[in-house]
Every structure is written in C-alpha cells, then in structure tokens.
Amino acid sequence: MNTNLWKTHASGQGYVEEQVMAWRRRYAFGPLWEEFDDFMAEMETQFNDMLEELATTKALPGKEMRARVLPALRGEFRVDVKEHDDEVIVAADLPGVERDDVSIELLDPRTLRIAFFRQAETKEEAEGYYVRERTYGSMDRVVKLPSEVTEEGATATFKNGVLEARLKKTAIEMKKKIPIE
C-alpha cells in the first residue's frame, strides 16, 4: 500500500515540506505476494500516468508508446484467448519472430506456455552516418486457459508473425448418482 507522507526539513530559507511516497505493509501477517502485486499495479499506474503526460507533448506519442513499451517491460507479448463449443483458440502476436524459433507447450490441462527467441539486425546508411542495430533475446509466457484441454487433436499455425493454437476441450464427465443401500 502506498502512502503519501509529508516530510519537513530545515533549509537555508526556513522549513521546506516535501511529499514522499512510502510503501507500508497492509497486513502484518498477510500474504506478501498479494501486497507485492498491489505494489506492482501501483507502479504500473504511475508509469501509465507518466506516459499520459508525455502524450501532451509532441515529442512522444503516449498511448502508442505505452502500447508498445508495457508488454516488453513486463516480459509479455499480446495473447488473445477465445473459447468455443469444443475448442480453445489462443492467438499470440510475435512480430519479427521466425516460425522455427517458436515453441508451444501444454504444461497441464489449463496452462499453455509459449516461448520464442528473436534475433534481428538493421542497418541504415546515409550521407554522413552509418547505423547498425542488433536486438536479440527470448521471451516466454504462461497462459491460463478458460477450460481444460488436451494435446490430442491440437493444431498450431504461424503466419505473418501470428501464432494460432487450437486446442480441443476435454470431455467433462457427468456426475452420476450413487444409490444408497
């Protein structure tokens, strides 16, 4: 939980008040991970606010920058999950990634892991300068699925930087009454 505090200290011209942000535990014996998640959400909110302020300047487009920057900062890429009658469809945007650098794995009936390695190099030459940039790295994301699925009959395609996986739902057994003797 963030708390805004005011700190007063002496300066050459008298007393000065400053606003200071502090993080305090909400519950002394509660789960620390929940509070850490709250703390991270607050940091993301402040980062969004900062980018919104940048949007008013002509130097950086805030919303476009936030849409590109935040998933990368969190180590994520965009994923859409759709549930249909007999299958779950997962689509992931992986621009600049080659098909052979992508792996997809069903960790359990409700959890899918998508991973990839990306390596790119750009060169730009003009009169008076030369720029060569190299980027590389790996990312992975674990996606929770809305229903239990099986790898049997699952298919995956990769076209124009979009991965689409179609996973068949598992049959749910109906509950049966047990007679009492």
Structure description:
The protein has 181 residues and is α+β, with helices and mostly antiparallel strands. The chain folds into 2 domains: 2-71, no CATH class; 77-169, Immunoglobulin-like (Sandwich), CATH 2.60.40.790. It is built from 2 helices and 9 strands, in the order ββααβββββββ. Strands 3-4-9-8 form a 4-stranded antiparallel β-sheet, with no helix packed on it. The chain has a 3-stranded antiparallel β-sheet with strand order 5-6-7, with no helix packed on it. Strands 1-2 form a two-stranded antiparallel sheet. β3 and β4 form a beta hairpin. α1 (32-55) packs antiparallel against α2. The longest helix is centred in the first third of the chain and has 24 residues, at 32-55. It is flat and about 90 Å long.
SSE diagram, text form:
Elements: E1 2-11, E2 14-23, H1 32-55, H2 62-73, E3 79-83, E4 87-93, E5 102-108, E6 111-126, E7 129-144, E8 149-159, E9 162-169
Antiparallel strand pairs: 1-2, 3-4, 4-9, 5-6, 6-7, 8-9
Helix pairs in contact: 1-2
Q: What's the number of helices? A: 2
Going by CATH, the architecture of the largest domain would be Sandwich
Measured as a percent range, the helix fraction is: 10-25%
Q: Which series of helices and strands comes N to C?
A: EEHHEEEEEEE
Summarize the structure.
The chain is an alpha+beta fold and 181 residues long. Helices cover 20% and strands 50% of the residues. The chain contains two helices and nine strands; from the N terminus they run E-E-H-H-E-E-E-E-E-E-E.
